[in-house]
Design goal:
Elements lengths: L2 H9 L2 H11 L3 H71 L3 H16 L4 E12 L3 E13 L1 H13 L5 E9 L5 E12 L1
Antiparallel strand pairs: 1-2, 2-4, 3-4
């Protein structure tokens, strides 16, 4: 069925015949007013859904921007968490490698000091109670006193303490002039052990 046939079929309905008869009975001025009103209603009827659709599109775009920003934040925090997790893992590995008992610290220091200054003329004492480092580790402080060493021996000793095979944590270093070209040194050293 063609469009013209459908229109002629619709025009045969009683309601459309009444509207057609009513419209033809109007004056030219009334017809113009009816057509203008119908056009205004038609424009309004299409503008309201288009406006609502435009508002929906704008809201969807705004939500997309907000969600994109949230995704960037989540990605940033995810990378930060990954970085911090890697650092924590390295720190735990470092602490695990550097944990020692008092006997191990004594033996390690004995070899470091004797290699650095060529003698075992030093005094090592524990300093206070162990201090908690998180849930798994504790730090024990020691005081190492050496009465006579040269500047080269002191530098070698400090390097070995910080960079040696089993690194110790070096705190305060107090160096004073000794006899002749020698120095006296008091070093605060810390080791890490399991709780």
């Amino acid at each position: 069925m063609s469009i013209s046939e459908q229109i002629s079929r619709l025009s045969r309905t009683p309601a459309l015949r009444k509207v057609n008869a009513w419209f033809t009975a109007l004056t030219q001025r009334e017809k113009t007013l009816v057509l203008i009103t119908a056009a205004a209603l038609g424009i309004y009827a299409t503008t309201v859904p288009v406006s609502a659709l435009q508002e929906h599109i704008d809201e969807t775009k705004r939500q997309a921007v907000v969600r994109e920003h949230a995704l960037e934040e989540v990605t940033h925090y995810s990378k930060r968490l990954s970085s911090l997790d890697s650092k924590l893992s390295k720190l735990k590995t470092s602490l695990e490698q550097s944990k020692m008992t008092f006997e191990q610290v004594t033996a390690n220091l004995d070899s470091i000091v004797s290699n650095a200054i060529g003698s075992r003329n030093y005094n090592l004492n524990k300093s206070g109670q162990p201090e908690a480092l998180g849930d798994e580790f504790e730090k024990q402080d020691f005081v190492l006193k050496i009465d006579a060493l040269t500047l080269e021996q002191l530098v070698k000793l400090l390097f070995e303490l910080e960079q040696g095979k089993s690194p110790l944590f070096l705190g305060n270093v107090d160096v004073s002039q000794g006899r002749g070209d020698t120095f006296r040194a008091t070093l605060d050293i810390a080791s890490v052990g399991s709780r």
